[in-house]
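Known limitations

Files may contain more than one protein. Parsers should not assume a single record per file. Below, a two-record file is shown to illustrate correct handling: read the sequence, read the token line, then continue until end of file.
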Amino acid sequence: MLNKNLKEIISSGNISLGIEFGSTRIKAVLTAVGAKVIAESSYNWENKLIDGIFTYDLEEVWIGLRRCYEDIAKYVKQEYGIEIKNISSIGFSAMMHGYLVFDKQGDLLVPFRTWRNTITEQSAQLLSQCFKFNIPQRWSIAHLYQSILNKENHIANIDFLTTLAGYVHWKVTGEKVIGIGDASGIFPIDETTLDYNDKMVEQFNELAEDEGFNVSLKNILPKVLLAGQSGGRLTKEGALLIDPTGMLQEGILVCPPEGDAGTGMVATNSITPKTGNISAGTSIFAMIVLEKKLTKYYSEIDMVTTPVGHPVAMVHCNTCTSDIDAWVKIFYEFAKQADNSFNVSDVYKLLYQSALNGKFDCGGLTSVNYFSGEPVVKINDGIPLFIRKPDDEFNLSNFMRTHIYSSFATVKIGLDLLFNDQEIKINKLLGHGGLFKIEKIAQQMLASSLNTPVEVTNSASEGGAWGIAILAEYLSHKEQNQSLEEYLNKEIFADTNSIVCYPNQEETEGFNIFLERYKKTLQVENFAVKLI
């Protein structure tokens, strides 16, 4: 877009803002109609392990949000000479699940318990058995019931339970609402009513009452909304939380807050049945939009929804790139000592390219990349492992291919239940996330490992902040009765370019050899977790 046109667009307020609170970054994206990126910014943050709980300080939520908005406002001022005053629509997204509970005064009752915690095994199993529906450990309802079973003091004061995205949305709009995709990681959704499953709500209330918790569940959960419905408007107080200068105006439309799974589906245009996407960053999860229900429930597979309520089978694993990042850091330290001209991006590129020369079965090497527990394989904690026999082919290429394979081995174990047991067919998977930043390398290995084509679009790197900006734009710009699917195909992805990698049969066979070795190594992982 020409500079002059953008000045007019920004001045008119015909723009949207998407903000996502990810695992390692808070990211903001300002877009013009058609989700054309005008400006973007980010703020790095990390979870903390405090008293055995993975958490984030909520004060840093607001520090990061303000910093991101301030950087975008500064860029727009410098580039176009305009102060941002009005925006057509805003959206907030965040990592799903976890546990945020507040009392009637709006005060946080216990530190935020994130999706990464695997401390709810007892409640998750009991609820899954009761509902005949898989309740993963990271789901909000599992955290609530575990707190009830533990007789934690705070449960008597709970007035509101929500997700991180729901919390931010509530504070800037005053509305206790949630997008259906994010809601589906709080409590099971009824695909006919597009709301929390009433039968399961009643079952939960009975279980909780037996433990002395007498609050009706629906009274403390946020209201479920679909994409395209209004989530309220920015209040004066909310505008100041984002922009303390007072320049940003109140009254801006805000779309329903969504989870990172939903925004990932939107950002890859994979929200219709028989489509799927795979997000590979700090964590890795695959989402398959279903034509019909599964014939049974699996503890390895979550049932969630798209932002418009289509059922989705989700395989979620807690760790993806963390172990690769740790090894790259070691190689980067060496490279800096050997030649100070290297930057970390150079090291990533060199190491990934080296993996291309590795044997398809990794020459006998094995790594397990777990930084935390992985419920898909029923391991409750994580210790990264690298294992080799003395006569294995231990070289850099095999070493790097091993770690890339390891980053998606567990999600492959879960997806095999859908592809083999349930005989679900999809044409391709849309890939996005940090694992795909270096073109084609991990993408090709993933395609071979899943024996399924993997497509990465030129917009995939925009990620969840861009996805929630699209949902915000859809709220303010959709035509009457225009579906989200229609809007995405017509307004967002009509001219998208992409790269598709197809399975290499030899590589598929090599990965399968690696995977059998990996599964056996999980016995060592489980022993190490219990021993150390």
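...continuing to the second record:
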Amino acid sequence: MSAPPAPARPPVVLKVAIVQQIDSLNPFLAVFQSSTEVGRLMYDPLTAYTAADQAVTEGLANRWESSADKLTWTFTVPDGKKWSDGAPITAHDVAFTYNLMLTDEVARTANGSFVTNFASVTAPDDRTVVIRTKTPQVTMLALDVPIVPRHVWEKVGSVKDHANDAMPVVGSGPFVLTEHVAGQFIKLRANKTYWRGAPKVDELHFVYFQNSDAAVQALAKGEVDLVNRMAPAQFDSLQGKPGVTRNKAQGRRFTELMINPGAQTRTGVPIGDGHPALRDVRVRRALAQAIDLDALVQRVNLGYAEKGAGLVPPVFGKWHWRPEASAQHPFDPAAAGAALDAAGFPRGADGTRFALRLIGRAGRAYDEQASEYLKRSMSDVGIALDVRLVSDNQLNEATTAATYDLAFSGWSANIDPDFILGLHTCAQRPGADGKGGTTDTYFCDETYDRLYARQLSEFDEDKRVEIVKQLQARFYDQVPAVVLAYDNALEGYRSDRFTRFTTQPAQGGVIMAQNGMWGYYGAEPAERVAQAQGSRWIGLAIGGAVVVVLALAVVLVTRRRRATAEERE
């Protein structure tokens, strides 16, 4: 009689809390951090960054070389890598992705700055991609562009209208998107044929919460396994919580206060309804001087942040910039008031110069608390703030249409500074129809653009570092936004369910919001670690027993041999 089959092992599910909505599952359109996070799990780029030290490593390509003049780059896509539907990944997929971006303005929405300097992209065979650039481009190993399957996307009629939600979505990454219910959850399953090897979890679920308070409570109750971007008070509340481990890291994000400088399309046509006073750089500088950044970090961030300055966070070391004392906008309400007087905006009889609208995200603790602080700060210099906190999508719509005066925003910078700097070039403004491009602040400045072009072609790293700092200084001087703070990444996970997560970098790094997918890919379920350890102990026990038996056998044989020898003598 045969033994009954062993019961099926339930899948290991990693549940991750998110409070930001998804703007798009289409990788050419996705801009929100939540959306790009999911995209990195679904699609590999041409080259990637290691988890340990963020060095360039293999992505879909495993080899690359440039011509002596740095104008031609040849990448090799090795045989054997497959899309999640089993089709082979080839150089033609890479060429198709880049050429779609070059020929379709809408396809450049999320990552257009990476290909602006491309002259041509070809795939002479299945294994070889050749990219030619108009001028030398130092970022060719930092192209953070999701590569899509040609055999799927060549059937897409309109990139603008493609939701990319035919489940399961064909991808190349460690997870496959299987279900998405807007405002509720996103479900992915492990790609068992992933070329790096299958993830250690079977499924990955992103669960929506209205606010971070609810997400943190869910973590404490064990309803989810991982939370990030907690408010300081929430992070502190988890100290000593059984089954929960906290992770504080120097994050790659910054929080900013955008100031509408007079938004225009890339052809110079005004759009939106920003307050006309904000077109005057003297007014924007005065607003910066009215904000006590040190106090903001202490009162709102509770010290879990560093005071803002340039566009590149301090975690990226050599690229980070802070102004010299003589070039700062120091907190000085009196000087701010005098500057506003000189700009032609004196106080009225009620003490108010003019009113501005401030828009932020509802449910985000930072926006709620910082808006009250800014309301008082601006009142001190005669500016009345009308604060409106809305949903993620409403905030995105308002900032995209430039129907704001001031707005809370923030970005995650890449390891190479080019992407975050490229958000502020004139070319990143939208087209005549208001579509395409991914500008952050509608900033357009000839001096900035010249410096940006120089850094893109500078292969001497020391010289490029200096140009990158000049770019940040120019942005700071013209004040299309005030970088308020570089937030610490405040994360927590259920260590009773997952023994470890891969951080990037290895020492003091983040779990979520990485330049890659290592945090989720490297998650180690406690159950399987325990099973592996149990199997190891069983193996050791069995091995030990075998050793004992063999030892006894040797003793018996030896004794018998001795007895036989004695009998012969």
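Parsers that stop after the first record will miss the second one. For reference, the second record is described as follows. Residues 535-542, 544-569 have pLDDT under 50 and may be disordered.
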